[in-house]
Amino acid sequence: MAFFFTHRTHWFYFLLILCSVFLGKIKLALFFLALYFFLLFLFRRQRLIDLPFSTPTSPVDGIVHKVFEHGLLLRMNWYSGFGCYLPYSGVIVENTETSFTFRDDEGEMWRIELYPGIWGINPQLFVLIGDIGKQGGNVGFISWGGELILYLPKKYEILVKENDLLRAGVSSIAKKRMDTL
């Protein structure tokens, strides 16, 4: 199992537990410690698997909200992991605060845009221009109910349809068109 918490969340619980101990409130410190481990358990995710033939996989756990010509609008579940993962291996060539573009080994461009969830917490990206990412690598954070738009290269045929449930790093979302092989 892998866990996804932001650094801010780890520090917040560390400070809560530390302050409780210094104030002599041992029961409160134990409560915060138990809550911390419960949340770690709640926001866990399964390790990503390697699919054959470098098949693009879903970057988030969620539902396909809309399929358009060369892209997908994915809406995250409120109860599952909040990580955003690379659907395909590549090099980051463009990066803004809430979106990035990467180039795969064949020179094809992929783009991911992140949008806030129902709580209005802005997404966070952990990548910089020039970073080399492997398929399934964690590249960001999206809060509850956030949305993600994935633009695929034209040589890929989208396999999913609206309302399909996807698992990050596990669900195959596209395949290369036969005429481009």
Q: What's the quick description here?
A:
With 181 residues, the protein is an alpha+beta fold.
How would you explain this protein's 3D organization?
The chain is α+β, with helices and mostly antiparallel strands and 181 residues long. It folds into two domains: 2-45; 52-180, Glucose Permease (Domain IIA). The protein contains two helices and 15 strands. It has an eight-stranded antiparallel sheet, with no helix packed on it. A three-stranded antiparallel sheet has the order 5-11-9, with no helix packed on it. Helix 1 (7-22) runs antiparallel to helix 2. The longest helix is centred in the N-terminal third of the chain and has 17 residues, at 26-42. The chain is elongated and about 70 Å long. The two termini are 36 Å apart. The model has no long low-confidence stretch (mean pLDDT 84).
Helix content: 10-25%
Count, helices:
2
Major sheet details: 8 strands, antiparallel
Overall outline: elongated
Question: Mean of residue pLDDT?
Answer: 84
**CATH hierarchy: architecture of the largest domain:** Distorted Sandwich
Computed structural class: alpha+beta
CATH topology of the largest domain, which one?
Glucose Permease (Domain IIA)
Tell me the span between the first and last alpha carbons. 36 Å
What is the CATH top level name of the largest domain?
Mainly Beta
CATH superfamily of the largest domain: Glucose Permease (Domain IIA)
Number of domains: 2
Radius of gyration: 18 Å
Main sheet: strand order: 10-6-7-8-12-4-3-14
Q: What fraction of residues sit in β-strands? A: 25-35%
Which consecutive residue ranges, at least 5 long each, have pLDDT under 50? none
